[in-house]
Write a structure and sequence with these properties.
CATH topology: Rossmann fold
Strand content: 5-15%
Structural class: alpha/beta
Radius of gyration: 18 Å
CATH architecture: 3-Layer(aba) Sandwich
Order of helices and strands: HEHEHHEH
Shape: globular
Strand order of the largest sheet: 1-2-3
Helix content: 40-55%
Length: 151
């Protein structure tokens, strides 16, 4: 908590399992946010400062399922609520997603015929480098925003 309080930015990163962040990420978020809320009628929050934030998700689903099921209309899904709590406490997070990731190194070891393995491999080869580049650029933008606040 002390390190987070003295930082200028925070990146939350988690694979998505069953439409939610991992238990470890959820526990971290709960421990991070619980101490900064005052339980009054106004919903007062007292974070040490408005940190710049980003969220990185990796998942084995395509964008439509992610948006419709996991984020939901008006951010009513489990990931939408996760994002809302971050934004309510700190700065609005930049959201980065790696979609349709490879779930297994060797699909022949599993019953997984709901996926077209060759299509997933092709997607990974073509899209994952772009997603990495997007993550890098988001990091640069976040660093620039932080630098602007410090100057």
């Amino acid at each position: 908590m002390e390190k987070v309080s003295s930082s200028e930015g925070l990146v939350f990163a988690s694979p998505i399992y069953f439409g939610e962040v991992t238990a470890q990420m959820r526990a971290f978020m709960e421990r991070l946010l619980f101490p900064v809320y005052v339980y009054d009628e106004a919903g007062t929050k007292i974070p040490p400062k408005k940190l710049e934030t980003a969220i990185i998700y990796t998942m084995n689903v395509k964008p439509d399922r992610f948006n419709n099921w996991f984020v939901g209309v008006d951010k009513s899904g489990p990931l939408g609520l996760f994002e809302k709590w971050i934004e309510l406490t700190y700065e609005k997070p930049e959201i980065l997603c790696a979609y349709d990731t490879l779930q297994f190194a060797d699909y022949s070891n599993y019953v997984a015929d709901v996926w077209d393995v060759e299509e997933k491999k092709k997607h990974n080869e073509e899209e994952f480098p772009k997603e990495l580049e997007s993550a890098y650029k988001a990091g640069v933008k976040m660093a620039e925003r932080i630098k602007g606040k410090l100057n």
